[in-house]
Design a protein that fits this description.
The chain is of the alpha/beta class and about 400 residues long. The chain folds into two domains: about 210 residues, Response regulator (Rossmann fold), CATH 3.40.50.2300; about 160 residues, Response regulator (Rossmann fold), CATH 3.40.50.2300. It has 13 helices and 14 strands. The strands form three sheets. A seven-stranded mixed sheet has the order 7-6-8-9-10-13-14, with helices on both faces. Helix 5 packs parallel to helix 6 and helix 7 packs across helix 8. The longest helix has 25 residues.
Amino acid sequence: MRLSKFLTGGLVVAVSAVWGVNAMAADTIKIGDINSYKRLPAHTIPYKKGTELAVDMINNAGGVLGKKLEIVSRDDQGKPGEAVKIAEELFTRDGVVMISGSLFSHIGLALTSYAGQKKRLYLAAEPLADALVWAKGNRYTFRLRPSTYMQAAMLAEAAAKVSTAKKWATIAPNYAYGKDAVGAFKKVLKAIRPDVEFVTEQWPGLFKIDAGAEVQAIEASKPDAIYNVTFGGDLAKFVREGDLRGLFKGRLTLGLLTGEPEYLDPLKGDAPAGWVVTGYPWYAIKDAAHQKFVDAYQTKFSDYPRIGSIVGYNTMLSVAAALKKAGSTDTEKLVDAFEGLDVDTPMGKVHYRKIDHQSTMGAWVGKIAVKDGKGMMVDWAFKDGAKYLPSDAEVMKMRPTK
């Protein structure tokens, strides 16, 4: 008798607990966010802070569809297989309505494949490989950041304007992002300047660069200009070894992403002055919407934003806008909402193209200067991403029809 009462009471408590959890879940819309927090924290932690700031703002304004947004954040450890495993757990165990995030291109491509196979929505916040929206693109994958092609095209345009360099050397990490970055740059630059030639291509393993050997190989090819795609620790080693051996002296050098605070700030006074780069001069942008974002970020975190910060912020603004447009958390309705979606961001209006699911988010292009012992972007201009994409006809040739 007592055991029966105990079991009955325990069952009531257990059921009540489940109902309580479900009730709380019913008041939120969960977004699964996956990123390489341990592998490259200098970039991914600012990204995470940006998502948190946006969600706070959205929820303080009443949420979306009458509910609060909730981020369920997981670390993929820099491994594609782990990212896919986590994605499945987020949908089946945590009840997220979509996934977002990721930094490395090989992880982004793995999640793109997963999204297409499982018919689950994935907003690729940061991975830049072109295949993500073109050769490997699918109905369920969208990308926020300006692609490798877009940013390479911006640098090619800048190079053609400031230099008559004919012989070029390239250096890029030997994986999807690096390959795409070099391929896109060569294609666009040759279209502008048919007389250029590429005298050497260096492909160090990701985060395994032998900077001395790479610098020596580039110097031996006697280029007029250099196109650099290395980042993180590889970038720092390449810059310091190149400076030591005089590689950059008298040569135009371009740096894809090099002007981003995540990669520029650690170099401090060793920042490569004179390089033409894409980046994020947050300290010099006077636009009111952007300043509002910077002020809110600094107030919440007592720190300044990096490019990852504004990407994370824009990611969650995009999620909220799609939910509002769809009027539902249904996957198919959300996909339809993302196609042609316009989002107001601190960088201006961003449009998600229906043809390839690439957003038109832009980027800043300028030069690096060293001031007060640290690298900064100067002589910069914001480039509208919509102007640096291939034609619809070219996209249709690259993107799967199914």
